[in-house]
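Side project, low priority. Logging it here so it doesn't get lost.
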Amino acid sequence: MMEQAIGFQTKRLTIFVGDYGSGKTEVSLNFAVALRACKKRVKIADLDIVNPYFRSREASEILKSADIELIAPAGEQAWADLPIILPGIAGAIHDETANVVLDVGGEAAGSRVLSSLFDEADEIDYDLLAVLNANRPFSGDANGSASVLQRIEDASNLRVTGVVSNTHLLRETTPTMVLTGYEVAERLANRLGVDVRFISVEEKVAERLDASLFSAPIFVMKRYVLLPWEIVGTGAAISERGSDGSG
């Protein structure tokens, strides 16, 4: 199912955006790892300058072991909650030899950084995928989500090209919840005139899903982003320093 979800990906540049708590960092990380598994050269750039809790730069060891280049502040700056935009990010966007994944900070404030990276003369073929968790405030209906995405589009000067259905409630996620979220994502996609590109689901939940109920592919994810009390005794997870664990 992972290959089917990644199979649609024909754009060299994939940008993940979403409202606070959408889970876009988890999706971004898993997407980059899946691209690398397909033998592609992959770079992931951390543009989450808004939310200090769920940032892909905290996954450096996981990405390094997967041979994925992480573009993010190093040293003391790695933990700075500052708008640090690296020259390497602009370089990666224009690197024709690599597939690039951008993890962009929540809502309009974080998306403004995108407008500074693209020149009006640029003709970069991109996918801007909106990650939707219908369990989050203002995301439970297509109208509320469309309003959030409108602000993101206005701030970034880019247009959403697809929706990722990522409805979950961590360990409380159920197949019914995933299906309900997918239905919201479908309504949102129809309103925007785009497709639901895939449904992202944690692997234990995916085992209980009836794939025939979904017209979009299922993208099975590992949880790289864990709550602090979940990482005791483990060394292969990212600690979420926030309170709700939703990325």
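Brief comment: Residues 76-80, 239-246 have pLDDT under 50 and may be disordered.
Revisit when time allows.
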